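Regression test attached.
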Amino acid sequence: GQNIDQPTEMTATEGAIVQINCTYQTSGFNGLFWYQQHAGEAPTFLSYNVLDGLEEKGRFSSFLSRSKGYSYLLLKELQMKDSASYLCAVRDGNYQLIWGAGTKLIIKP
Amino acid sequence: DVKVTQSSRYLVKRTGEKVFLECVQDMDHENMFWYRQDPGLGLRLIYFSYDVKMKEKGDIPEGYSVSREKKERFSLILESASTNQTSMYLCASGRGTAHRNTQYFGPGTRLTVL
């Protein structure tokens, strides 16, 4: 079956750096997405990777290794507003999105 | 900016009622999706549509149906609501099937079935 794994919850300190990992096993691969979802709100798009390597966008970066079925989202200079759930999703060989359960990130002062 | 709207943020219904959840997008997107989101589970796809009057079953279509009479509107129907359909329902839209196409989400409808 198809599977996306990410940690359920992580805690970090304001101003620090945190890395959220995502591993996947899917039938085919057509890209990996990271979304941010604040409590009670809709998911919003953060990043997309289809080739191996690091994509940087301001304080957020996303890395992909297709051979390892692995990605991570790196958040730098953490701010309190970064407290949210982070969802990893993989587009499989049929162009369907397979979603992870999300990682709840708690930022402490 | 892409805008996806859903008819209600919160809804309370009784077991056995017929429930309509409406979703409208204003970006002329071909694709529209209905998901449910429950604690500890990833987003689960209920139904999707790649064109007007076209629908495809997702992973958990049982107990649901959909309607897409116009490109901008995608409706989710619970024919006879049951308590296990209490959930957050998210509508999304997107363009085409190219690799990078992002899905844009509505604010969600939190449905409680009593």
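Expected vs. actual: identical. Chain A touches chain B at residues 4, 8, 30-31, 33, 40-45, 48, 50, 87, 89, 91, 95-102 (CB under 8 Å).
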